[in-house]
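Treating backbone geometry as a discrete language has practical consequences that deserve illustration. Part of our work consisted of pairing the sequence of a single chain with a tokenised description of its backbone. We regard such an encoding as a compact summary of how the chain folds. The amino acid sequence and the backbone structure tokens for this protein are reproduced below.
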Amino acid sequence: MKKFTTFITAIAIATTANAQSDANPHMAGHNGILEIIGTIGLVAIVMFSILQMLKYLLDYRLKNKIIDKGISEELASSLLHVDPNESKNVNIKWFAILAGIGTALTIIYFTLPLGVHSLAIMAFCISASFLGYYFFLRKARK
């Protein structure tokens, strides 16, 4: 239910953002780029949602097959083992990714007009956030 609510909210935000006027004169002529970025973002959200639904469905089917076949408890626990530290780190990973995107968008706003340098700024900020997440994981394992 949370995923469905998030999906509807993303569509509503995209529709609302599309209804805004072109108040920033620096952005004139770059509406095509913003539409492409928005479309790519929407497709990414839809694909991520589909992948998550497939993952939940396949996990459910696997668990049912294990129960139906009567597999030993040791084998079932090894197949279904989920690392609790992995689920704890998912929130930190998303924080790092979104912080990198937010930083990139802030820097891009101050270096208008949009161009190839905007993509470079986005790539470097996202890669820096992944590097920070890597160092966090390395420190957390010690």
Notes: Residues 84 and 101 are 27 Å apart (CA to CA). The chain has a mean pLDDT of 78. The longest helix spans residues 31-69.
